[in-house]
Write a structure and sequence with these properties.
Elements (H helix, E strand, L loop, with lengths): L1 H13 L12 E5 L2 E4 L4 E4 L2 H4 L8 H13 L11 H13 L5 E6 L2 H16 L3 E5 L8 H6 L17 E4 L8 H14 L6 E6 L2 E2 L5 E2 L2 H14 L2 E5 L23 E4 L10 E6 H4 L15 H16 L2 H20 L7 E7 L2 E9 L2 E2 L1 H14 L1 E2 L1 E3 L5 E4 L7 H15 L10
Parallel strand pairs: 3-16, 5-6, 5-7, 7-10, 10-11
Antiparallel strand pairs: 1-2, 2-3, 4-12, 8-9, 11-12, 13-14, 14-15, 14-18, 17-18
This protein binds pyridoxal-5'-phosphate.
The site of pyridoxal-5'-phosphate (PLP) has 15 residues, from helix 5.
Length: 428
C-alpha cells in the first residue's frame, strides 16, 4: 500500500475533491481486461474505463494505428486544414448510420457531442425546447447536465441551468410505456408545445441510469411523435454504441431511424473522440464554423477509431458482446436462487451491458449495500462502477475482448462480494 498512500497524500494536496474517484487506487499498467495498481495488485476490469475499452487495454491494432499516426503528425486542427483520418471516421460513421444520406462531425468528449446535437436540432428547426428523460445522463457541461435527468451531483448548486429543457419520465423508472407516453402528452399540453420542441434526446439503453433499455413500443411511439410534429429525434449512444449491446448501435434493436446519433467513449479506443452522425439536411443546417473545436477530431484519436471500427467487425465483437452478457446474466440469475444472494434484485442485460439492482430487503434498493459490494469486490480483485437512477445498481462493462477464463474469474469475485456472510441457520 506504500505507493497508494503516497499518491493519496499528493492527491489530497493537489486535486480538487470534486474530481472524485470510485475506487481508492492508482493504476500502473493495463493489458486486455486486466489492471495492475501501483502496489502490484491485479484486477479484472469490468469497468473498461466507463465502457470505453471495448477492445480492451493496449489492443495491438489500436497501438499500431496510434503509433503510425504519431509518426506522421499528431495535431494540425481541422478548422485550419483537413486530414484524411477525420474524413475516414466520418465515412465509417455514415456507413453504419441506420438512415440514408448521413453526414458527421467530430468532437472530443461525449458532452460536447450532445451539446452539438442539440445545437444542430435547434438551428435546423428554429425552435428552443428539448425533452430529455428521468435517469438520463448526457454529460457534465451546463447543457449536457441540464439534460441529465438526475439532480445530484451534476446539477446541485448550479440550478436553474438552461431554459427550454423539460424532463419526461423514462419507462422503467416508476412508469411503463403507456404511463411515459401519457406524461409526454401532458408535457405537450402543460409545459412545452410540440411546435416549440426542437428535439427529444434519449439513450436507447440508459447507461448511468442503470442499464435500462427503452421499450421498443416506446421508441416507435417517439418516432411517430417526432414525425408528426417535426421534432428531431436524437439517440445518445455514447455508452451503448460500438457493439456493446450486440449491435453496432443499440437503436438497431428497436428498428427505428433516429435523426441524429451522438457517439463518444468507445469510438476512440481509449483516446478522446466523439461525434454526431445525422441526416444531411439537419447536419448541414448550421453555418460553416458553427461546429468544431481546436482538438475536435484529433488525428491520433481518428487513427485509433479507424482501428476500432475495423476490429469490432474483424474479431466478431458484437457476437462476443452477446456471449459475455449471456454468461454474466446466467451466473447472476443462478446465484440469485442460491442461499446468501438476497442482495440481488432485478437483473438486466442488453448484450454486454449487464446490471443488477442491489436490495437490502425484497423490493427495497440500497445504495449503501451497493457501495459495500463494489468495495468488497475490489478487495477480491474485480473493478466495476455502480450506477443507477437511485445509485443502487451494479453495472458490468467488461471489454468485449475479454476471454472466458477472465470473465469467469471476474464474475466469481463479484458473486463472492455479493454473497452475504453465511449465518448459522443457513447452509454454506
Ligand atoms: C450516455 C452518455 N452520454 C454522454 C456522456 C458524456 O460523455 P463524456 O463524459 O465523454 O463527456 C456519457 C458519459 O458517461 C454517457 O454515458
Amino acid at each position: 500500500m506504500i505507493e497508494t498512500e503516497k499518491l493519496t497524500a499528493r492527491r489530497a494536496a493537489a486535486v480538487a475533491t470534486s474530481a472524485a474517484t470510485t475506487h481508492p487506487l492508482y493504476i500502473a499498467r493495463a493489458s486486455g481486461a486486466e489492471l495492475w495498481d501501483v502496489d502490484g495488485r491485479r484486477y479484472v476490469d469490468f469497468a473498461a474505463g466507463i465502457a470505453v475499452l471495448n477492445l480492451g487495454h493496449g489492443h495491438p491494432a489500436v497501438r499500431a494505428a496510434i503509433e503510425a499516426q504519431l509518426a506522421a503528425y499528431a495535431h494540425v486542427a481541422f478548422p485550419v486544414n483537413g486530414y484524411e483520418p477525420y474524413i475516414a471516421v466520418c465515412e465509417a460513421l455514415n456507413a453504419r448510420a441506420p438512415f440514408a444520406d448521413a453526414r458527421s462531425a467530430l468532437f472530443t468528449t461525449g458532452a460536447e457531442a450532445v451539446e452539438n446535437a442539440i445545437k444542430v436540432a435547434r438551428i435546423a428547426t428554429a425552435r428552443l425546447g428539448v425533452i430529455a428523460f428521468s435517469g438520463a445522463f448526457h454529460g457534465r457541461t451546463q447543457l449536457a447536465a441540464a439534460l441529465s435527468g438526475k439532480i445530484a451531483p451534476l446539477r446541485t448548486g448550479v440550478q436553474p441551468l438552461l431554459q427550454g429543457v423539460v424532463h419526461a419520465p423514462f419507462p422503467g423508472h416508476g412508469t411503463d410505456t403507456e404511463g411515459a407516453l401519457a406524461s409526454l402528452d401532458e408535457i405537450f399540453h402543460a409545459a412545452l408545445a410540440p411546435d416549440q420542441t426542437a428535439a427529444i434526446i434519449i439513450e436507447p439503453v440508459q447507461g448511468e441510469g442503470g442499464f435500462v433499455a427503452a421499450p421498443r413500443e416506446f421508441m416507435l411511439a417517439l418516432r411517430r411523435l417526432c414525425d408528426a410534429h417535426g421534432i428531431v429525434l436524437i439517440a445518445d449512444e455514447i455508452q451503448s454504441g460500438f457493439g456493446r449491446t450486440g449491435r453496432f448501435f443499440a437503436i438497431e434493436h428497436h428498428d427505428i431511424e433516429p435523426d441524429i446519433i451522438a457517439v463518444g467513449k468507445a469510438i476512440g479506443g481509449g483516446l478522446p473522440l466523439a461525434g454526431i452522425v445525422g441526416r444531411a439536411a439537419l447536419m448541414n443546417a448550421a453555418s460553416p464554423g458553427a461546429l468544431g473545436g481546436t482538438f475536435a477530431g484529433n488525428p491520433v484519436s481518428c487513427a485509433s477509431a479507424l482501428a476500432v471500427f475495423d476490429t469490432i467487425e474483424r474479431e466478431g465483437l458484437m457476437a462476443r458482446a452477446e456471449h459475455i452478457g449471456a454468461v454474466m446474466r446466467n451466473r447472476i440469475e443462478r446465484a440469485r436462487t442460491e442461499p446468501g444472494f438476497t442482495a440481488i434484485g432485478a437483473v438486466r442485460q442488453n448484450g454486454a451491458m449487464v446490471a443488477f439492482d442491489v436490495v437490502d430487503a425484497p423490493g427495497r434498493i440500497s445504495p449503501a449495500r451497493t457501495a459495500e459490494i463494489a468495495a468488497r469486490a475490489r478487495e477480491l480483485g474485480v473493478l466495476f462502477l455502480p450506477c443507477g437512477y437511485r445509485s443502487s445498481t451494479i453495472r458490468l462493462s467488461a471489454p468485449l475482448t475479454i476471454d472466458d477464463a477472465l470473465l469467469d474469474e471476474g464474475i466469481g469475485h463479484l458473486l463472492a462480494a455479493t454473497r452475504a456472510p453465511v449465518t448459522a441457520d443457513e447452509p454454506a
